[in-house]
Specification:
The complex is a heterodimer of chains A (316) and B (311). Chain A is mostly helical and 316 residues long. Chain A has helices spanning 3-45, 59-62, 69-76, 78-111, 115-126, 133-144, 150-158, 173-198, 202-210, 215-240, 247-251, 261-264, 267-278, 281-309. The longest helix of chain A has 43 residues, at 3-45. The two termini of chain A are 41 Å apart. By secondary structure, chain B is mainly α. Chain B has 16 helices and no strands. Chain B is globular, with a radius of gyration of 25 Å. The two termini of chain B are 25 Å apart. Classes of the chains: A mainly alpha (316), B mainly alpha (311). Chains A and B meet through α1, α4, α5, α6 and α7 of A and α1, α2, α3, α5 and α6 of B.
Amino acid sequence: MLVPPKQKAVFTYSIVRNLRTFWMFYVMMLPGIVLLLINNYIPMSGIIIAFKTINYQEGILGSPWTGMKNFEYLFASKDSYIIIRNTLLYNSLFIVLNIVFPLAFALMLNEMKNRFLSKLHQTIMFLPYFLSMIVISYLVYGFMSDERGYFNGTLLPALGLEPVRWYFTKEVWPVILPIINTWKNMGYYTVVYMAAIIGIDEEYYEAATIDGANKWQQMKKITIPLIMPVITIMTLLQIGRIFNADFGLFFQVPRESGALFPVTNVIDTYVYRTFLTVGDIGLSSAAGLFQSVVGFVLVFISNWVVRRFNRENALF
Amino acid sequence: MANIMSKSVSGSHSKNQLSGRASALINIFFVIYSALCILPLLLIVSVSFSDEQSVMTHGYRFLPENFNLAAYRFLIKDIDQIVHSYGISITVTVIGTILSVIVIALYAYPISRSHFPQAKFFTFFVFLTMLISGGLVPWYLVYVQMLDLRNTLWSLIMPLIMSAFWVLIMRTFFKETVPEAVLESAKIDGAGELRIFIRIVLPLSLPVLATVALFQTLTYWNDWFLSLVFISDNHNISVQYFLYKMMVNIQYLSSNPNAMAEITRAGGMVNFPSETVRMAMVVVGVGPIVFAYPFFQKYFIKGLTVGSVKG
């Protein structure tokens, strides 16, 4: 009977000792902790908004509960199918493109003999990564604006083709958006993969050359398997965000053209518009919560799958 | 970067090289791709130096027809707004970057020390924020209703200071580059944790500090989302947001003949070289980043290779 109080005493004692020994660590972390609370943890508790009808007079806690109504409303609308489909399809495509092309580029750059040229191309490829989405939206506009854009004004007439009203033609955007995404991120991912390739011990290749392996065989049997951990981590990180679209890409680049919404509206732009343009706080929160929960589940599933194949490659 | 390249140039690769034709193909391929990276910007620059009339009739061209500085002359008339917006962007970027590096480093150090029993908990505390979020609405309400930061510079700085990704990168760097033995001996000599951190850990970690600083500079300079959400007063707008507003306003005017007529009646100016001014503004907007990036780039590459997110 005397055991519990004693344990408690030990527990309090250890807290005091921990604070006394590590108080400086806690002081150092304090600004970071406060910011994480403000930016991340307090908003997490705000998910209750999704289950309420918000009434500004009563405040968030005082507003009446509505159960799942916001969700029912969200999933009953035609928008929900479109935004979920768009978000998932675009992001899956982006993940594949962000592996295949940068990897191929890294492998090719690695074979380039001229050191100066290789460095120059890397530098130039990195340029789009440094531009904001606003600037990129202007660049795209420069090519695709109705009358004066380069395509309609110069290129298509020169080829004898009819001009296209790009910002009203939804069929072309599922091609254009992936191209822009790949173009913008190419420099970044190429460097990540290149760094991994450089880290491979030269002796593997020496041995392979002696055994008569050609470039293609070396790539398949040495390079790709050895950089698999990096590929896996990069992919896992992106899968974790598969339900979060690049807001700038889908909001800025199509320039809010309503005609394009069926192919450019994603969960993020939907949440933004229903909240700040339409002002429907409940619906917007419901969509946001749905996004978080599914995203969270997806990271855990994909991490679990990776763990089953190879513990080392898993994220956690 | 230097050793990255030299390693692949010299060494065993000299015995194990691609055929001449394959490497010629690779070279041609990259020349074309590099051109695709630069040409869109060149188009914009060219339009900004063109005569409005010829742009209106012939469309955007890669070489300016009738070289003309009218767009820049027009922008100089509006120099107050531009200087002001630059001031806001620079202030936010400088303060934001400095605070980020300090806050991130201060958080990353304790969780990198294996003798700190709570290291695991606080690592998870920051890692979890990469996986789950409360969504836009509650986050917005915290800033607007709880903290009442709407239309302030803090609303453009605070949300981006703490980045889970960079905390984890820095933690890995501290763990791998700063030997435990050095820290232990400093402790025996009587140095406190803060002193150890400032005198020993930070000087050894300059590469990762520089990397975080560069990426945060880029993040702050290119941010427009926070302005879109938090800034409603027309005066305090950053360069990127100014660009966004310009796109939206001109789009509105040009698709709305009535609005144009209204403005003319009110004595406003409609006959400004709208196409070329827009593009000139983009040139002004990208300016500093594009000139600085070739110098930054080698640090970026170092930074991307210093630590993995794994932990």
